[in-house]
Design goal:
Oligomer: single chain
Shape: elongated
Largest sheet: 8 strands, mixed
Strand content: 15-25%
Strand order of the largest sheet: 4-8-2-1-11-14-13-19
Helix content: 25-40%
Structural class: alpha+beta
CATH architecture of the largest domain: Sandwich
CATH class of the largest domain: Mainly Beta
Number of domains: 3
Radius of gyration: 31 Å
């Protein structure tokens, strides 16, 4: 039965695929001229399966006019331009011909005959006059290049936009992208917009660009400031969501990665050894022995600075978790259980933070804000709060990491340009050695001889090293009765608090990442596109494809 159902599903999928055209890709090149006009060239790689023609909708034109329309195919045949297009002709009559349907105030349709239901590569070119608008403070371009509602959505879309005679970058322009999942970035004096997944029927590609005055001399004047255009476009926008790579991209990246690894393995090993030696004083971590004492006198931010130097892609979550456990250790945060025995985090004497660095107070204050009126921090409260206050969270992450560098410099552990001193290298070795010790903490004699007074340091630095769960389990297995001498009272409470601190720290990592991605995209510096938003565009519209 399962095999029969599978066969039916495969046949059904094949039938559905046969009804629609295969639009493999759309590549668009936009060349802006100083008079504000745009020469647009679109390459449509597709296999039609119905209809007699392909058409593109261009509405919302305002004072924009479309002219110099031309079409050619994969054989280099330049199509005859009929001027006003007759939609009702046969496929044979439309073959090798193109034209425009003028729909009055509703814009135009750019049309051409498909000729046959075979693979084609159509190159479409036209000029949009007065595409760039001159505003009070800036010039802007706000166009929809691919419309939603097409009969067949393309698998991928890419667009390159440049200005004749001028490189555009963050120095003189800003870019925002809407209607699709993907990116829009500045590169080599141009804007590159690329989709990261197959378009859906609701997908489109809208670009909004802001230009400094002096690049264009467009006759199209729009009163008001650019901010009014941006505000309308941002309505409904949501930036910062990353999309997974497709299989083809993953295979290509994997192949290139293997090739680069083979070609550069000697250089990588040499560079790694040299870099590590500049931090640790020795070229490899294998040369560092166990260290049973917390590094830098138990200073979390100094230790985090070292780890971030050794692991450049490190996120802030592990550090945050360690800081929360340290505040519990010092009594600034307290552990309670509610009537049903569930573990909660409450707020103790904030004066206990006086011996800790300023970043601890910032984290403490954010946790208080998230806890609400009852002053008890529930599991999901911080996640909800950080999502609504992502910018504040990201500012705290930046200040926390900066404070670690300041503490290292003030303590004589690093000198000019961040160079590790001999004292700093010794401290860095103790960080690595203490991590080794905690990872190997399964030895019976080591666990049995561990002093209860060190347990909190073990747990705090276990969180910093990303192995808090392992350390908590090892401590629980030593002797549960010894927990009466710690702040956790029993093994369950300790493991539960470790889990809660990890949840809180993940919220901070996610909020910070979202704030940074959204900040780059919203500021127009390039980055993720927003599927929503983009209102107020010219060109485009709804529909298009085969008919």
């Amino acid at each position: 039965m399962k095999r029969i159902l599978s066969l039916i599903l495969v046949l059904a999928a094949s039938c559905l695929a046969a009804w629609g055209a295969d639009v493999r890709s759309v590549n668009i090149d936009v060349r802006l001229r100083t008079d504000g006009s745009a020469r647009i060239t679109e390459i449509w790689d597709l296999t039609p399966s119905e209809g007699t023609e392909w058409y593109l909708v261009r509405s919302n034109l305002g004072d924009i006019e479309i002219c110099d329309f031309s079409v050619s195919d994969e054989s280099g045949n330049r199509y005859v331009n009929d001027g006003e297009w007759d939609v009702d002709r046969s496929m044979r009559a439309k073959k090798g011909r193109c034209g425009i349907v003028h729909k009055g105030s509703r814009g135009v349709e750019l049309c051409w005959g498909i000729g046959s239901y075979e693979p084609h590569i159509f190159t479409v070119s036209y000029i949009m006059t007065r595409a760039v608008k001159s505003m009070d403070d800036y010039d802007c371009l706000h166009l929809q290049f691919v419309s939603p509602g097409m009969t067949d959505a393309p698998k991928s879309v890419s667009l390159t936009l440049g200005v004749e005679g001028t490189d555009i970058s963050e120095a003189n322009a800003r870019v925002w992208a809407f209607g699709y999942n993907g990116t829009a970035v500045f590169s080599d004096g141009r804007v590159l917009a690329t989709s990261s997944e197959r378009f859906r029927s609701s997908s489109s590609m809208i670009l909004l660009l802001r230009f400094d005055k002096g690049i264009f001399h467009s006759p199209s004047v729009r009163e008001g400031s650019f901010q009014t255009v941006l505000d309308r476009a941002m309505d409904g926008a949501s930036f910062g969501e990353s999309e997974p790579l497709d299989k083809g991209e993953l295979l290509a990246i994997a192949f290139c990665g293997i090739l680069l690894l083979v070609l550069g393995i000697v250089l990588i090993i040499w560079a790694t050894r040299t870099y590590r030696k500049s931090i640790l004083g020795v070229p490899t971590i294998k040369e560092i022995d166990w260290c049973r004492d917390a590094p830098f006198g138990g200073d979390i931010l100094k230790s985090d600075y070292v780890i971030r130097k050794l692991e450049p892609v490190r996120e802030a979550g592990a550090t945050t978790s360690a800081m929360i456990l340290r505040m519990i250790d010092r009594g600034a945060l307290q552990i309670h259980k509610d009537a049903r025995g569930r573990v909660e985090i409450a707020f103790g004497d904030f004066s206990k933070l006086d011996s800790l660095s300023q970043s601890f107070r910032g984290l403490y204050d954010m946790m208080i804000k998230a806890s609400g009126k009852d002053g008890i921090l529930q599991d999901t409260e911080f996640s909800h709060w950080s999502g609504r206050h992502a910018k504040e969270v990201d500012r705290w992450v930046t200040s926390m990491q900066d404070e670690g560098q300041t503490l290292m410099r003030d303590g004589g552990d690093i000198a000019g340009l961040g160079r590790f001193t001999e004292q700093g290298k010794a401290g860095a070795r103790s960080v690595v050695g203490f991590k080794k010790f905690l990872k190997d903490f399964t030895l019976i004699n080591e666990r049995a001889s561990a002093e209860v007074g060190m347990w909190n340091d073990y747990l705090v630095f276990g969180a910093l090293f990303g192995i808090a769960d392992k350390v908590a389990k090892e401590l629980s297995d030593i002797d549960p009765r010894r927990f009466c001498e710690t702040v956790y009272a029993d093994p369950y409470t300790m493991r539960r608090v470790v889990w809660m601190s990890s949840r809180l720290s993940n919220s901070i990592t996610n909020a910070s990442a979202a704030a940074r991605a959204a900040s780059a995209a919203r500021s127009g510096l390039g980055g993720a596109a927003s599927f929503g938003g983009g209102g107020g565009f010219s060109g485009g519209g709804f529909g298009g494809g085969a008919r």
